[in-house]
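Recall the central idea of this unit: under ordinary conditions, the amino acid sequence of a chain determines the structure it adopts. In this exercise we apply that idea directly, starting from the sequence alone.
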Amino acid sequence: MTGRFVLIIKTGDDFIFFHDACGLRTVYYTKEEDHFYAASQPLLINEVIPLKKTRAYEEYFNSEYVATVREHYLPSGVTLYENVFHLVPNHYVKVSEFEQKRYYPFQELKRRDYSEGVIEFSTLLKKIISVAHNHMDLAFSLTAGWDSRIILSGCKDIAPDIGFYTLKYRNMSDKHMDIRIPISLSKSLNLNFNIWDCQKSITPEFAEIYRGNTDMAHMNDWGEIAFGMSKIYPPGKVAVKGSCSEIGRCACYPDGKHKAHLTENDFLQMEKGWEELDFIREEIRKWRESIKGNSFNYLLLDLFYWEHRMGGWQAQSQLEWDIVQEVFTPFNSRELFDIMLGIDPLKRKCEKPSLYIDTMKYLWSDVLAEPVNPYTFKRRVRIFVYDIMSYTGLLKMHQAAKKKKNEAKGKIVCDGKLTLRKPIGGKCP
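Accordingly, the structure predicted from this sequence is:
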């Protein structure tokens, strides 16, 4: 099953809750006096029974992590309320047992021949998009990135019937690649395309509603964008996003080379600032222990990104924006993930993934008429400096000095590596 949903199964006198692959339709639950309560977020439960904040609530919102990371989030399974739990992707909870149990993965990941994998992946992605088009009034998000471009390639047969859009927000100018490239691409492909300007000052009335909408409201960022969308987003349109595709694009190890042995700190460093929060460290430790030795040949960093980055960050983003739009995510499919993850990681690494390029060539090669995520001038300068330092030996000297300085401060060092593409939150993989 694909999309965003929660299924509640009645079996005799019991109920079982489980949700979509990435848990984008969130489930929070608790028990009081033998009564079971579940909702999409804790503030709704609080409307029925009073909830108590944990000690971690103040620790989290007063942390440097929240102060410095604009899109901060909690890993899946963590809440800031006593006896309230968050259902982790690939797990279910039975009311009578009140304990989360993993049900996926349950068998060895099938390794796929690359050529066959491309055809299988392309065919399923196109079918998902076509079926969604037959059942919903869709609006397709378009940026300069890989995720929206590959979804566009699956729209060749339906493109004349649908609309495409790009949101203009934060400090984006008309020269930003996510504005400039979609405009050029839409002209060459003759798409029905619009730029929707979300750069508007939020009103106190909307701010109050947004804060009450979820307990993790990102008022000064997602909230401002949501306000802009509330003024221009067409009612009834279901937004199609490329979210979750990064699971199959080596998001936590951009070069496609997965470490053989991972420590607790390797996972914590995937989100800069988590290592400072003990309650998050404990949750990641428990997650790692539960999956270690039982991953059925799935790479652990892929599962980490799937269940925590998507089940935490992306799920929270979509939850907050439910106030202005409904979302359909074609990649939110275990079947699709299994095809991608069964392909050699070197064919699906973050930058210029062969799997994506070959899929687009197979489905609609014209979508490659414009570059995907082209390097900015600043990025090109960084690469030039990196190459010079590598050639002259200055890079090794710089890394050694930086490692010595960090060790003196008691900080953890990631093998002294300098990465050109910061994966998640700006730390080394």
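The CA atoms of residues 9 and 128 lie 25 Å apart.
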